[in-house]
From TrEMBL:
UniProt name for this protein: Lipid A biosynthesis lauroyl acyltransferase
Gene Ontology, cellular component aspect: plasma membrane
Pfam families in alphabetical order: Lip_A_acyltrans
Species the sequence originates in: Hoeflea prorocentri
Subcellular location: Cell inner membrane
């Protein structure tokens, strides 16, 4: 490709990203003009109409059929539609996050959010030490570091920016406002997380993402590769590892759960076992997803099937 053609297509790509970003920003600004419950109902209906017509819906149904072969097609379709509703609410909740987190934090209850495991938040805050919190793309997972920060517990989270650089910039700024320190998921991120642990602080990781070069494990009985970053960090810094999740409740409410630290399996040398721990993480996430299947992102290509389904 000639330099002229390269510059032309690069500018075309940049212009496309800018236009898409402006459409998204305009939609979000319009949402701010209407009451939060109205915005949520509108986007849910729109998602229930549009989501099933997309290619990603086919992928979601295929993943559901493999994960839940015992369920009927109607049951799996219902889960997939609930998933789209969850995703639409997640978008709106970005806009109204200040209203969501405006509640009394003294006992973990009040407002729209209840916290189960508040004593663990407070213990980690009052007795600083390196720790890792892991979660999955369930409910509104973004609330976990936000509420942690409101308790005075600041967790440095690994963040995968959107492909659109204009949206990524805005989203990064919005997340930093409420979440504290964020580390983009790119080359060198693991060193930055290690530095946080060395300083006796905590890091947060999502562990249900697609990964090409990880530990060979099972998820819903099917082969997947799982990122071993958490395992290696825990092994090197011998720190506590806590499971945490967000559960979407009726009437626009949430329950955030921070479970007790888990015991990680070790090998014959006494080191934390990479494959065994990666499988333990998958088992925990699977138990969460089985309990609330409509709150997980089934269109996510966890089993690397997109190339087959979305031809």
């Amino acid at each position: 490709m000639s330099p002229f053609a390269y510059r032309f297509f690069f500018r075309l790509y940049k212009a496309k990203n800018w236009i898409v970003a402006q459409i998204v920003f305009t939609a979000l600004r319009l949402l701010r003009l209407i009451p939060v419950q109205t915005a949520l109902r509108f986007t849910e209906k729109a998602a229930a109409f549009i989501g099933p017509k997309t290619k990603r819906h086919r992928l979601a149904l295929f993943n559901l059929s493999r994960a839940f072969p015992e369920k009927s097609e109607e049951e799996r379709e219902k889960i997939a539609v609930e998933m789209w509703a969850n995703m639409s609410r997640l978008m709106v909740e970005y806009v109204f996050v200040e209203q969501l987190i405006d509640h009394d934090l003294r006992d973990g209850e009040g407002g729209l959010i209840e916290v189960d495991g508040i004593e663990r938040f407070l213990d980690l805050r009052d007795n600083p030490r390196p720790f890792i919190v892991f979660t999955a793309h369930t409910g509104n997972f973004e609330l976990l570091p936000i509420i942690g920060a409101k308790y005075g517990l600041h967790v440095t989270a690994l963040f995968r920016p959107p492909n659109n650089p204009y949206i990524a910039k805005q989203l990064m700024a919005a997340r930093r406002t409420h979440m504290g320190q964020l580390i983009p998921s790119r080359v060198g991120a693991s060193w930055n997380l290690a530095s946080v642990l060395e300083q006796g602080q905590g890091v947060g990781l999502l562990v249900d993402q697609k990964f090409h070069k990880g530990a060979k494990t099972k998820f819903f009985g099917m082969d997947v590769q799982t990122n071993s970053l958490l395992v290696k960090l825990a092994r090197n810094y011998d720190c506590e590892v806590y499971p945490a999740r967000s559960i979407r409740l009726p009437n626009g409410k949430f329950r955030l759960e921070m479970e007790p630290a888990i015991e990680l399996p070790r090998n014959d040398k006494g080191q934390i076992d990479i494959n065994g721990t990666a499988q333990l993480l998958n088992d925990k996430v699977e138990s969460w997803v089985r309990e609330y299947p409509g709150q997980w992102q089934w269109f996510h290509d966890r089993w690397n099937m997109k190339h087959i389904i979305l031809k």
